[in-house]
Amino acid sequence: MNDSHELVERTISSKEVFSGRLLHVFFDEVSLPDGSRSTREWIKHPGAAAVLPVFENGDIMMVRQFRYPMGQIFLEVPAGKIDPCEEAGSTARRELKEEAGLTCEHYQYLGRFYPGIGYSDEIIHLYIAWDITSYEQQVDEDEFLLKKRLSFRKAVEMVHSGEIADGKSMVTLLRGWHWWQEHQPFSI
């Protein structure tokens, strides 16, 4: 198989087996590239945006929060799901204000990534923000998190040491670091 079209699976049937507030689970029957049939279980997700705020002194703001499925506290960049009819950039700015209590004058799109390609259609859009102004956090009623300010360089080191292990945060920090080194809106 040297043509990528020979790798495509075709949907024969699709059934939603669970519908939640955030996630929808599907059970599909598919036709494989060789003509045989198989099944796929997958999760439909509305998508999300993550944002890395950079302060004038080179610090960044992250948040600590407990993640129930893993049963532990993670250090993460501010992020959240995209609401219906909302643009990813608006989500990033909203989450920056809600979770970190910050707004920004400037932000840059860093691209997207797919955190669970084997079982979900989730896409996370990544941003970096600067010219920061502080406000009060406005977290959701069921959201408990603590802000953590640290140096950008230290956060990147924590990705490499494994201290920061959340996928969206790792990708946002590394892409953000690379973008900052190339474009330097200001020196840190």
UniProtKB/TrEMBL annotation:
Keywords: Hydrolase
Domain Nudix hydrolase span(s) in chain numbering: 43-172
Segment forming the signal sequence: none
A Gene Ontology cellular-component term: cytosol
Record has Hydrolase as a keyword: yes
Keyword presence, Hydrolase: yes
Cofactor needs: Mg(2+)
A molecular function GO annotation: hydrolase activity
Gene Ontology BP terms: nucleoside phosphate metabolic process; ribose phosphate metabolic process
InterPro entries cross-referenced by the UniProt entry: NUDIX_hydrolase-like_dom_sf (IPR015797), NUDIX_hydrolase_CS (IPR020084), NUDIX_hydrolase_dom (IPR000086)
Reactions catalysed: GDP-alpha-D-mannose + H2O = alpha-D-mannose 1-phosphate + GMP + 2 H(+)
Pfam family, one: NUDIX
Entry similarity comment: Belongs to the Nudix hydrolase family. NudK subfamily.
Protein name: GDP-mannose pyrophosphatase
